[in-house]
Fold:
Amino acid sequence: MQVTAAIFKAYDIRGVVPSTLNESVAEGLGKAFGTQAMAEGQTQVAVGRDGRLSGPSLSAALIRGLVASGMEVIDIGMATTPMLYFAANTVCQSGIQVTGSHNPKDYNGFKMVLAGRAIYGDEIQALRQMMEAESWQLCAGGGIRQLDVLADYTQRIVGDVRLARPMKIVVDSGNGIAGASAPAIFRALGCEVIELFSEVDGEFPNHHPDPSKPENLLDLMEALKTTGAELGLAFDGDGDRLGIVTQDGHNIYPDRQMQLFAEDVLSRVPGGTVLFDVKCSQRLAPAIEAAGGQALMYKTGHSLIKAKMKAIEAAGGQAPLGGEMSGHIFFKERWYGFDDGTYAGARLLEIVSRSPDANVVLHALPSSFSTPELNVACAEGEPHRVTKALQAQAANAFSAPAQVSDIDGLRVDWPDGFGLIRASNTTPVLVLRFEGQTEAALHRIETDMLALLRSVKPDAQVGASAH
Structure:
């Protein structure tokens, strides 16, 4: 069959409906994934979908393909991506979520778990090759059963998290799928919840469900001003990422949230390894180490962090927590190790409820001067070439006390800040981020890193991330 190769991304499949992603692609993916699952001894697969308008038809086509390959499909219906992961940890070991995540409304896609692992990279390309060659194996015996996991999922969170006092919060679901479950879960934890845009609507009529973008938090900030609520929580389109806003309108970015989570988790798992991606603040590693943990900087990508956490555990170590600047937080301690915005929100409330004012706790977290995520548009295939060239030049460009890391693009750390230039794995852009402990340090680091970039790519135009 004909497929658009570009929709097969590093961590998932994502495209525009119906031009690059349609029912034929979904059904073909079902046949290919089912073939691979059966080869690994899997006979069941959970399927969920977010609130996008194309979800029902793509999900139905995907299920047709899975059944044709001989799989028993456990259809959990409309659910957050974390609820799909929950199903793939409790009722079976494999799952596919039909979701466009935080992409514009005409997008959709698939996030996949196979035999307990989030698949990425070469495994996603192998599915593409099987679809193109139509080399799947079809067999009888497949079937479908419906299962609503919301009650069990809710009970699992409410049974795990304890708030020290009631809290009044605002929850902005941005008309994404989290609106159908998150507010009720926070109420069950003992919160008074003021809801914004909980109605699931694939047109996203109010604002785009992406809490990493400050413009999407304006309604939440306004509600915090007018309601006297203590804290604001915001979710992305499929509910696997969390945004946190203080009463006075400050966005507590995920790398600052991680300082709080690490201190809490490491109090029960001393010496554990806490993973974070290369986009995170320089302040995070010392906070992890001060709390008695091992800090490990790793590549960006939810599938990559989850795989690395599993590898550490498999080698006899402990990886109780991981996190990314994009808002994916992975709790292995007391949870399953997958990213879940609702659960991360619950864990945050548990910690801050121990103090009389959550805002005091959040404002006390160490911070620096930093840029938002910046993008440099490139030609298809160019970002990885540019980062290789930058890595080759870095040794000559920077001397001590600068420390150069090439684990994911080029990150250079100085005693007073860092600069990062890496290739996005989802779109043809370079991702840049700069941080300084003073404004002067930020300016110096940004200037030096951009000079190096322009020596390799003279036409580089830096703009705010549109991702």
